[in-house]
Design goal:
The chain is mostly helical and 480 residues long. 59% of the residues lie in helices and 5% in strands. Strand 3 (432-436) and strand 4 form a beta hairpin. Helix 2 (48-62) packs antiparallel against helix 3 and helix 5 (119-143) packs parallel to helix 13.
Protein backbone atom coordinates (compact mmCIF):
# COMPACT_ATOMS: atom_id res chain seq x y z
CA UNK A 1 0.00 0.00 0.00
CA UNK A 2 1.24 3.51 -0.78
CA UNK A 3 2.52 5.74 1.97
CA UNK A 4 -0.05 8.03 3.41
CA UNK A 5 -2.97 5.63 2.99
CA UNK A 6 -4.64 3.79 5.85
CA UNK A 7 -6.17 0.37 5.60
CA UNK A 8 -9.08 1.27 7.87
CA UNK A 9 -10.52 -0.72 10.74
CA UNK A 10 -11.77 -4.29 10.87
CA UNK A 11 -14.36 -4.92 8.17
CA UNK A 12 -13.63 -1.67 6.36
CA UNK A 13 -12.61 -1.76 2.70
CA UNK A 14 -8.92 -1.68 1.90
CA UNK A 15 -7.83 1.71 0.59
CA UNK A 16 -6.91 1.76 -3.09
CA UNK A 17 -3.42 2.66 -4.22
CA UNK A 18 -2.82 6.38 -4.62
CA UNK A 19 -2.50 6.21 -8.41
CA UNK A 20 -5.74 4.23 -8.62
CA UNK A 21 -7.36 6.78 -6.34
CA UNK A 22 -6.20 9.58 -8.64
CA UNK A 23 -7.68 7.74 -11.62
CA UNK A 24 -11.06 7.34 -9.93
CA UNK A 25 -11.30 10.96 -8.82
CA UNK A 26 -10.34 12.12 -12.31
CA UNK A 27 -13.00 9.81 -13.75
CA UNK A 28 -15.64 11.45 -11.58
CA UNK A 29 -14.48 14.97 -12.49
CA UNK A 30 -14.37 14.10 -16.20
CA UNK A 31 -17.89 12.69 -16.02
CA UNK A 32 -19.16 15.78 -14.19
CA UNK A 33 -17.63 17.97 -16.92
CA UNK A 34 -19.52 15.91 -19.52
CA UNK A 35 -22.79 16.50 -17.65
CA UNK A 36 -22.16 20.25 -17.46
CA UNK A 37 -21.40 20.25 -21.18
CA UNK A 38 -24.83 18.79 -21.86
CA UNK A 39 -26.49 20.92 -19.18
CA UNK A 40 -25.34 24.10 -20.94
CA UNK A 41 -27.77 23.42 -23.78
CA UNK A 42 -30.03 20.93 -21.97
CA UNK A 43 -29.24 18.13 -24.43
CA UNK A 44 -29.15 15.19 -22.01
CA UNK A 45 -31.46 13.11 -24.20
CA UNK A 46 -31.70 15.16 -27.41
CA UNK A 47 -30.24 12.25 -29.37
CA UNK A 48 -29.50 8.58 -28.71
CA UNK A 49 -25.76 9.10 -28.34
CA UNK A 50 -26.39 11.92 -25.85
CA UNK A 51 -28.77 9.79 -23.82
CA UNK A 52 -26.12 7.07 -23.71
CA UNK A 53 -23.49 9.65 -22.78
CA UNK A 54 -25.68 10.88 -19.92
CA UNK A 55 -26.10 7.34 -18.60
CA UNK A 56 -22.37 6.66 -19.00
CA UNK A 57 -21.48 9.87 -17.13
CA UNK A 58 -23.72 9.04 -14.17
CA UNK A 59 -22.44 5.46 -14.14
CA UNK A 60 -18.82 6.68 -14.13
CA UNK A 61 -19.60 8.98 -11.18
CA UNK A 62 -21.30 6.25 -9.18
CA UNK A 63 -18.99 3.39 -10.19
CA UNK A 64 -15.66 4.81 -11.38
CA UNK A 65 -13.61 2.09 -13.03
CA UNK A 66 -11.45 1.48 -16.08
CA UNK A 67 -14.30 0.31 -18.29
CA UNK A 68 -16.87 2.89 -17.19
CA UNK A 69 -14.23 5.56 -17.89
CA UNK A 70 -13.36 4.18 -21.33
CA UNK A 71 -17.07 3.97 -22.20
CA UNK A 72 -17.46 7.62 -21.24
CA UNK A 73 -14.40 8.58 -23.29
CA UNK A 74 -15.61 6.68 -26.35
CA UNK A 75 -19.07 8.29 -26.25
CA UNK A 76 -17.55 11.76 -25.87
CA UNK A 77 -15.36 11.15 -28.92
CA UNK A 78 -18.36 9.95 -30.90
CA UNK A 79 -20.40 13.04 -30.06
CA UNK A 80 -17.53 15.41 -30.87
CA UNK A 81 -16.86 13.81 -34.25
CA UNK A 82 -20.58 13.49 -35.03
CA UNK A 83 -21.08 17.22 -34.45
CA UNK A 84 -18.12 18.35 -36.52
CA UNK A 85 -17.60 20.96 -37.86
CA UNK A 86 -19.92 22.57 -35.28
CA UNK A 87 -18.01 21.15 -32.31
CA UNK A 88 -17.29 23.87 -29.75
CA UNK A 89 -13.75 24.73 -28.68
CA UNK A 90 -13.94 23.10 -25.26
CA UNK A 91 -15.52 19.97 -26.73
CA UNK A 92 -12.88 19.70 -29.45
CA UNK A 93 -10.22 19.95 -26.74
CA UNK A 94 -12.09 17.29 -24.76
CA UNK A 95 -12.00 15.07 -27.85
CA UNK A 96 -8.24 15.56 -28.20
CA UNK A 97 -7.79 14.67 -24.53
CA UNK A 98 -9.95 11.57 -24.99
CA UNK A 99 -8.00 10.48 -28.05
CA UNK A 100 -4.88 10.88 -25.93
CA UNK A 101 -6.35 8.65 -23.23
CA UNK A 102 -7.35 5.98 -25.75
CA UNK A 103 -3.93 6.20 -27.39
CA UNK A 104 -2.27 5.59 -24.02
CA UNK A 105 -4.63 2.71 -23.25
CA UNK A 106 -3.83 1.00 -26.56
CA UNK A 107 -0.12 1.61 -25.97
CA UNK A 108 -0.31 -0.07 -22.56
CA UNK A 109 -2.33 -2.99 -23.95
CA UNK A 110 0.29 -3.60 -26.62
CA UNK A 111 3.20 -3.15 -24.23
CA UNK A 112 1.64 -5.42 -21.58
CA UNK A 113 0.32 -7.87 -24.19
CA UNK A 114 -3.04 -7.97 -22.46
CA UNK A 115 -6.14 -5.93 -21.65
CA UNK A 116 -5.59 -5.98 -17.88
CA UNK A 117 -4.36 -2.39 -17.71
CA UNK A 118 -4.14 -1.05 -14.18
CA UNK A 119 -6.17 2.09 -13.57
CA UNK A 120 -3.33 3.85 -11.75
CA UNK A 121 -0.85 3.02 -14.48
CA UNK A 122 -3.22 4.45 -17.09
CA UNK A 123 -3.62 7.68 -15.14
CA UNK A 124 0.11 8.12 -14.60
CA UNK A 125 0.69 7.54 -18.30
CA UNK A 126 -1.88 9.96 -19.70
CA UNK A 127 -1.63 12.69 -17.03
CA UNK A 128 1.67 14.16 -18.34
CA UNK A 129 0.20 14.38 -21.84
CA UNK A 130 -2.95 16.12 -20.61
CA UNK A 131 -0.77 18.60 -18.74
CA UNK A 132 1.06 19.40 -21.98
CA UNK A 133 -2.24 19.84 -23.81
CA UNK A 134 -3.59 22.20 -21.14
CA UNK A 135 -0.49 24.38 -21.50
CA UNK A 136 -0.92 24.38 -25.29
CA UNK A 137 -4.56 25.44 -24.89
CA UNK A 138 -3.58 28.37 -22.67
CA UNK A 139 -0.74 29.31 -25.01
CA UNK A 140 -3.09 29.77 -27.93
CA UNK A 141 -5.77 31.40 -25.78
CA UNK A 142 -3.20 34.13 -25.10
CA UNK A 143 -1.41 34.11 -28.47
CA UNK A 144 -4.60 34.52 -30.52
CA UNK A 145 -5.46 37.65 -28.52
CA UNK A 146 -2.27 39.46 -29.54
CA UNK A 147 -4.12 41.45 -32.17
CA UNK A 148 -5.34 45.02 -32.65
CA UNK A 149 -9.02 44.06 -32.37
CA UNK A 150 -8.60 42.71 -28.83
CA UNK A 151 -7.03 46.00 -27.73
CA UNK A 152 -9.70 48.19 -29.35
CA UNK A 153 -12.12 48.92 -26.47
CA UNK A 154 -15.17 49.43 -28.70
CA UNK A 155 -14.97 45.94 -30.21
CA UNK A 156 -12.78 43.92 -27.84
CA UNK A 157 -14.12 40.65 -26.47
CA UNK A 158 -12.54 41.66 -23.16
CA UNK A 159 -14.90 44.66 -23.16
CA UNK A 160 -17.98 42.63 -24.10
CA UNK A 161 -17.31 39.96 -21.48
CA UNK A 162 -16.64 42.58 -18.81
CA UNK A 163 -19.89 44.39 -19.63
CA UNK A 164 -21.69 41.05 -19.35
CA UNK A 165 -20.62 40.86 -15.69
CA UNK A 166 -22.87 43.91 -15.00
CA UNK A 167 -20.23 45.68 -12.92
CA UNK A 168 -21.10 49.18 -14.14
CA UNK A 169 -23.25 49.73 -11.04
CA UNK A 170 -20.27 48.93 -8.81
CA UNK A 171 -17.30 50.56 -10.55
CA UNK A 172 -17.10 53.15 -13.36
CA UNK A 173 -16.26 51.47 -16.66
CA UNK A 174 -14.30 53.84 -18.89
CA UNK A 175 -12.30 53.29 -22.09
CA UNK A 176 -9.12 53.35 -20.03
CA UNK A 177 -10.57 50.67 -17.77
CA UNK A 178 -11.52 48.55 -20.78
CA UNK A 179 -7.96 48.78 -22.16
CA UNK A 180 -6.56 47.82 -18.78
CA UNK A 181 -9.02 44.94 -18.61
CA UNK A 182 -7.71 43.56 -21.93
CA UNK A 183 -4.18 43.54 -20.51
CA UNK A 184 -5.40 42.06 -17.23
CA UNK A 185 -7.19 39.26 -19.09
CA UNK A 186 -4.01 38.36 -20.95
CA UNK A 187 -1.97 38.56 -17.74
CA UNK A 188 -4.28 36.14 -15.93
CA UNK A 189 -4.50 33.70 -18.84
CA UNK A 190 -0.71 33.75 -19.12
CA UNK A 191 -0.05 33.50 -15.39
CA UNK A 192 -2.16 30.35 -14.97
CA UNK A 193 -0.03 28.06 -17.22
CA UNK A 194 3.20 29.63 -15.93
CA UNK A 195 2.20 28.92 -12.33
CA UNK A 196 1.14 25.38 -13.26
CA UNK A 197 4.60 24.63 -14.65
CA UNK A 198 6.41 24.85 -11.32
CA UNK A 199 5.95 22.70 -8.24
CA UNK A 200 6.05 25.56 -5.71
CA UNK A 201 3.41 27.60 -7.55
CA UNK A 202 1.24 24.82 -8.92
CA UNK A 203 -1.51 25.03 -6.32
CA UNK A 204 -1.56 28.81 -6.69
CA UNK A 205 -2.02 28.34 -10.44
CA UNK A 206 -4.96 26.02 -9.83
CA UNK A 207 -6.57 28.50 -7.43
CA UNK A 208 -6.12 31.42 -9.85
CA UNK A 209 -7.54 29.28 -12.66
CA UNK A 210 -10.52 28.22 -10.58
CA UNK A 211 -11.35 31.81 -9.67
CA UNK A 212 -10.91 33.05 -13.24
CA UNK A 213 -13.06 30.38 -14.86
CA UNK A 214 -15.66 30.48 -12.09
CA UNK A 215 -16.14 34.24 -12.57
CA UNK A 216 -16.49 33.70 -16.34
CA UNK A 217 -19.14 31.08 -15.70
CA UNK A 218 -21.55 33.71 -14.42
CA UNK A 219 -21.22 35.93 -17.49
CA UNK A 220 -24.56 36.92 -18.99
CA UNK A 221 -22.84 36.89 -22.40
CA UNK A 222 -22.83 33.10 -22.38
CA UNK A 223 -22.56 31.12 -19.15
CA UNK A 224 -19.26 29.31 -19.61
CA UNK A 225 -19.63 26.60 -16.99
CA UNK A 226 -19.29 23.91 -19.67
CA UNK A 227 -15.77 25.14 -20.45
CA UNK A 228 -15.02 25.86 -16.78
CA UNK A 229 -15.97 22.35 -15.67
CA UNK A 230 -13.55 20.95 -18.26
CA UNK A 231 -10.75 23.12 -16.85
CA UNK A 232 -11.61 22.07 -13.29
CA UNK A 233 -11.11 18.44 -14.27
CA UNK A 234 -7.94 19.30 -16.20
CA UNK A 235 -6.44 21.10 -13.19
CA UNK A 236 -6.69 17.89 -11.18
CA UNK A 237 -3.87 16.25 -13.17
CA UNK A 238 -1.53 19.01 -11.92
CA UNK A 239 -2.23 18.34 -8.25
CA UNK A 240 0.01 16.39 -5.90
CA UNK A 241 -1.25 12.87 -5.09
CA UNK A 242 -1.68 14.09 -1.51
CA UNK A 243 -4.81 15.94 -2.67
CA UNK A 244 -6.41 12.65 -3.70
CA UNK A 245 -5.46 11.10 -0.36
CA UNK A 246 -7.03 14.06 1.45
CA UNK A 247 -10.24 13.69 -0.56
CA UNK A 248 -10.35 9.94 0.07
CA UNK A 249 -9.82 10.33 3.83
CA UNK A 250 -12.41 13.11 3.95
CA UNK A 251 -14.96 10.90 2.18
CA UNK A 252 -14.20 7.98 4.48
CA UNK A 253 -14.61 10.14 7.57
CA UNK A 254 -17.91 11.51 6.27
CA UNK A 255 -19.22 8.03 5.50
CA UNK A 256 -18.08 6.74 8.89
CA UNK A 257 -19.70 9.67 10.69
CA UNK A 258 -23.00 9.12 8.89
CA UNK A 259 -22.83 5.42 9.70
CA UNK A 260 -22.30 6.10 13.39
CA UNK A 261 -25.05 8.73 13.37
CA UNK A 262 -27.69 6.30 12.13
CA UNK A 263 -26.50 3.27 14.11
CA UNK A 264 -28.39 4.14 17.26
CA UNK A 265 -31.84 5.74 17.55
CA UNK A 266 -32.57 8.86 19.58
CA UNK A 267 -35.35 11.43 19.55
CA UNK A 268 -32.83 14.19 18.89
CA UNK A 269 -31.47 12.40 15.80
CA UNK A 270 -35.00 11.90 14.47
CA UNK A 271 -35.76 15.58 15.05
CA UNK A 272 -32.61 16.85 13.33
CA UNK A 273 -33.05 14.46 10.39
CA UNK A 274 -36.67 15.55 9.91
CA UNK A 275 -35.66 19.20 10.19
CA UNK A 276 -32.95 18.72 7.57
CA UNK A 277 -35.44 17.12 5.18
CA UNK A 278 -37.86 20.03 5.60
CA UNK A 279 -35.06 22.56 5.05
CA UNK A 280 -34.01 20.74 1.88
CA UNK A 281 -37.58 20.61 0.56
CA UNK A 282 -38.10 24.28 1.43
CA UNK A 283 -34.88 25.25 -0.33
CA UNK A 284 -35.92 23.41 -3.47
CA UNK A 285 -39.36 25.06 -3.32
CA UNK A 286 -37.84 28.54 -2.93
CA UNK A 287 -35.36 27.99 -5.76
CA UNK A 288 -38.17 26.77 -8.01
CA UNK A 289 -39.72 30.22 -7.69
CA UNK A 290 -36.46 31.99 -8.55
CA UNK A 291 -34.80 29.80 -11.19
CA UNK A 292 -37.07 30.07 -14.20
CA UNK A 293 -35.01 28.27 -16.88
CA UNK A 294 -32.93 25.13 -17.26
CA UNK A 295 -29.77 27.26 -17.70
CA UNK A 296 -30.48 29.15 -14.47
CA UNK A 297 -31.02 25.87 -12.61
CA UNK A 298 -27.76 24.38 -13.84
CA UNK A 299 -25.76 27.59 -13.34
CA UNK A 300 -27.06 28.94 -10.05
CA UNK A 301 -27.63 25.64 -8.29
CA UNK A 302 -25.60 22.71 -9.62
CA UNK A 303 -22.64 24.71 -10.93
CA UNK A 304 -22.49 26.98 -7.88
CA UNK A 305 -22.60 24.03 -5.51
CA UNK A 306 -19.97 22.10 -7.47
CA UNK A 307 -17.55 24.99 -7.97
CA UNK A 308 -17.75 26.11 -4.34
CA UNK A 309 -17.09 22.58 -3.06
CA UNK A 310 -14.20 22.11 -5.49
CA UNK A 311 -12.67 25.47 -4.59
CA UNK A 312 -13.01 24.85 -0.83
CA UNK A 313 -11.28 21.48 -1.15
CA UNK A 314 -8.37 23.06 -3.04
CA UNK A 315 -8.03 25.88 -0.50
CA UNK A 316 -8.12 23.45 2.43
CA UNK A 317 -5.48 21.33 0.71
CA UNK A 318 -3.28 24.39 0.08
CA UNK A 319 -3.12 25.08 3.85
CA UNK A 320 -2.06 21.54 4.68
CA UNK A 321 1.66 21.41 5.41
CA UNK A 322 2.15 17.68 5.72
CA UNK A 323 2.01 16.56 2.10
CA UNK A 324 3.21 12.98 2.44
CA UNK A 325 4.07 12.58 -1.22
CA UNK A 326 7.18 14.19 -2.63
CA UNK A 327 6.70 15.60 -6.13
CA UNK A 328 9.24 13.28 -7.72
CA UNK A 329 7.17 12.55 -10.81
CA UNK A 330 8.26 14.30 -13.98
CA UNK A 331 5.23 16.36 -14.78
CA UNK A 332 5.61 16.46 -18.54
CA UNK A 333 7.49 13.26 -19.33
CA UNK A 334 5.84 10.93 -21.84
CA UNK A 335 6.10 7.16 -21.44
CA UNK A 336 7.02 6.91 -25.15
CA UNK A 337 7.70 9.41 -27.91
CA UNK A 338 4.78 8.10 -29.98
CA UNK A 339 2.34 9.25 -27.29
CA UNK A 340 3.21 12.85 -28.15
CA UNK A 341 1.37 12.56 -31.49
CA UNK A 342 -1.98 13.77 -30.12
CA UNK A 343 -0.45 16.69 -28.16
CA UNK A 344 1.29 17.66 -31.42
CA UNK A 345 -2.11 17.65 -33.16
CA UNK A 346 -3.50 19.83 -30.35
CA UNK A 347 -0.77 22.35 -31.14
CA UNK A 348 -1.29 22.11 -34.90
CA UNK A 349 -5.02 22.72 -34.42
CA UNK A 350 -4.19 26.02 -32.75
CA UNK A 351 -2.09 27.17 -35.72
CA UNK A 352 -4.88 26.70 -38.27
CA UNK A 353 -5.89 30.38 -38.70
CA UNK A 354 -2.30 31.41 -39.42
CA UNK A 355 -1.65 28.83 -42.13
CA UNK A 356 -4.86 29.62 -44.01
CA UNK A 357 -7.10 26.86 -42.67
CA UNK A 358 -10.11 26.93 -40.33
CA UNK A 359 -10.79 29.89 -38.03
CA UNK A 360 -13.35 28.13 -35.82
CA UNK A 361 -12.51 25.42 -33.24
CA UNK A 362 -8.85 26.46 -33.14
CA UNK A 363 -9.00 27.90 -29.59
CA UNK A 364 -9.45 31.43 -31.04
CA UNK A 365 -12.72 31.92 -29.16
CA UNK A 366 -13.46 35.49 -28.12
CA UNK A 367 -10.07 36.72 -29.34
CA UNK A 368 -11.05 39.25 -32.08
CA UNK A 369 -8.56 37.51 -34.37
CA UNK A 370 -8.94 38.19 -38.10
CA UNK A 371 -6.77 36.49 -40.74
CA UNK A 372 -9.06 36.35 -43.82
CA UNK A 373 -8.93 38.05 -47.20
CA UNK A 374 -5.20 38.63 -47.32
CA UNK A 375 -5.32 40.73 -44.14
CA UNK A 376 -4.49 40.04 -40.53
CA UNK A 377 -4.80 42.00 -37.32
CA UNK A 378 -2.30 39.82 -35.45
CA UNK A 379 0.75 41.63 -34.13
CA UNK A 380 3.22 38.79 -34.69
CA UNK A 381 2.20 36.37 -37.46
CA UNK A 382 2.07 38.01 -40.93
CA UNK A 383 -0.55 37.04 -43.49
CA UNK A 384 2.28 35.71 -45.71
CA UNK A 385 2.54 32.76 -43.30
CA UNK A 386 -0.60 31.29 -44.89
CA UNK A 387 0.36 28.32 -47.05
CA UNK A 388 -3.24 27.39 -47.89
CA UNK A 389 -5.68 29.53 -49.92
CA UNK A 390 -8.97 28.81 -48.14
CA UNK A 391 -9.06 32.23 -46.44
CA UNK A 392 -8.04 34.21 -49.52
CA UNK A 393 -11.27 33.88 -51.53
CA UNK A 394 -13.73 36.29 -49.91
CA UNK A 395 -17.48 36.40 -50.56
CA UNK A 396 -19.36 39.63 -49.86
CA UNK A 397 -23.17 39.49 -50.08
CA UNK A 398 -24.85 42.33 -51.97
CA UNK A 399 -28.47 41.13 -51.89
CA UNK A 400 -30.25 37.88 -51.09
CA UNK A 401 -33.50 36.24 -50.06
CA UNK A 402 -31.75 34.44 -47.18
CA UNK A 403 -32.16 36.17 -43.77
CA UNK A 404 -28.78 35.11 -42.39
CA UNK A 405 -26.85 36.16 -45.48
CA UNK A 406 -28.83 39.40 -45.62
CA UNK A 407 -27.81 40.12 -42.04
CA UNK A 408 -24.16 39.61 -43.02
CA UNK A 409 -24.63 42.06 -45.87
CA UNK A 410 -26.18 44.64 -43.53
CA UNK A 411 -23.28 44.26 -41.10
CA UNK A 412 -20.75 44.43 -43.97
CA UNK A 413 -19.41 41.03 -43.06
CA UNK A 414 -17.85 38.58 -45.47
CA UNK A 415 -17.41 34.83 -45.66
CA UNK A 416 -14.67 32.74 -47.15
CA UNK A 417 -15.76 30.90 -50.26
CA UNK A 418 -15.38 27.53 -48.54
CA UNK A 419 -17.96 28.41 -45.87
CA UNK A 420 -20.25 30.12 -48.38
CA UNK A 421 -20.38 26.95 -50.49
CA UNK A 422 -21.32 24.86 -47.47
CA UNK A 423 -24.09 27.25 -46.47
CA UNK A 424 -25.63 27.59 -49.91
CA UNK A 425 -25.66 23.84 -50.56
CA UNK A 426 -27.20 23.24 -47.13
CA UNK A 427 -29.82 26.03 -47.13
CA UNK A 428 -30.43 26.41 -50.90
CA UNK A 429 -31.51 30.09 -50.79
CA UNK A 430 -33.73 31.24 -53.66
CA UNK A 431 -31.21 33.85 -54.81
CA UNK A 432 -27.89 35.30 -53.66
CA UNK A 433 -26.07 38.14 -55.37
CA UNK A 434 -22.49 38.28 -54.17
CA UNK A 435 -19.02 39.54 -54.90
CA UNK A 436 -16.23 37.00 -55.05
CA UNK A 437 -12.94 38.85 -54.70
CA UNK A 438 -14.73 41.89 -56.17
CA UNK A 439 -16.37 40.06 -59.11
CA UNK A 440 -20.20 39.87 -59.24
CA UNK A 441 -21.90 36.46 -59.24
CA UNK A 442 -25.39 35.07 -58.70
CA UNK A 443 -26.37 31.70 -57.29
CA UNK A 444 -29.90 30.27 -57.02
CA UNK A 445 -30.61 27.26 -54.87
CA UNK A 446 -32.94 25.66 -57.43
CA UNK A 447 -30.74 26.42 -60.43
CA UNK A 448 -28.47 23.44 -61.01
CA UNK A 449 -26.13 25.32 -63.36
CA UNK A 450 -25.37 28.11 -60.87
CA UNK A 451 -24.96 25.59 -58.05
CA UNK A 452 -22.51 23.54 -60.10
CA UNK A 453 -20.60 26.70 -60.99
CA UNK A 454 -20.33 27.55 -57.29
CA UNK A 455 -18.76 24.15 -56.63
CA UNK A 456 -18.96 21.80 -53.67
CA UNK A 457 -16.45 21.06 -50.92
CA UNK A 458 -15.24 17.50 -50.23
CA UNK A 459 -17.10 15.81 -47.37
CA UNK A 460 -13.99 15.23 -45.24
CA UNK A 461 -12.92 18.87 -45.45
CA UNK A 462 -16.47 19.99 -44.60
CA UNK A 463 -16.24 17.93 -41.41
CA UNK A 464 -12.80 19.18 -40.46
CA UNK A 465 -13.02 22.91 -41.21
CA UNK A 466 -15.34 25.76 -40.32
CA UNK A 467 -14.81 29.49 -40.85
CA UNK A 468 -16.47 32.35 -39.00
CA UNK A 469 -17.84 35.48 -40.73
CA UNK A 470 -15.64 38.57 -40.47
CA UNK A 471 -15.90 42.30 -40.99
CA UNK A 472 -14.62 43.39 -44.41
CA UNK A 473 -13.20 46.69 -43.17
CA UNK A 474 -12.56 48.00 -39.68
CA UNK A 475 -11.89 46.33 -36.32
CA UNK A 476 -12.94 42.72 -35.98
CA UNK A 477 -15.90 42.53 -33.55
CA UNK A 478 -16.20 39.96 -30.80
CA UNK A 479 -17.18 36.57 -32.19
CA UNK A 480 -17.08 33.11 -30.69
Amino acid sequence: MDAGMSSGGVGSPVAPSVARLQFRIFTVLWAIAALFHMAHSSIFDAALNLALLTIAAFYAILRPSLWSFLLLVALQIFDATFRMPFTTNHWIFTAFANFTILHVFIFLVIRNKGFSVQEGNLFRSFAPLLRIEVLILYFFAVFHKLNSGFFTPATSCATDLLKAQNLDTVIPLTDQFYVANAYLTLFIELSIPVLLCFRLTRVAGVIVGLLFHCVLSYSTYNAFYDFSSLMFAAYFVFLNPAFSVMMYNLFQKLRSSLGRFFQAYSTAKLFYTTLLVFVAVGTVYALNQKLDSYRAVHLYFFWTLYSVLFFVCIVVYSFKKNHTFAATERMFRSAHWSLLIIPALVFINGTMPYVGLKTENSYAMFSNLRTEGGKTNHYIVPVTAQIFDYQKDVVQITSTTDPFLQQLAAERKGMVLFEFRNYVHEQKPARVDYLLNGEHHVVMGQDQASMEYLGRNPYLLKKLMKFRPFVIDGPQPCEH
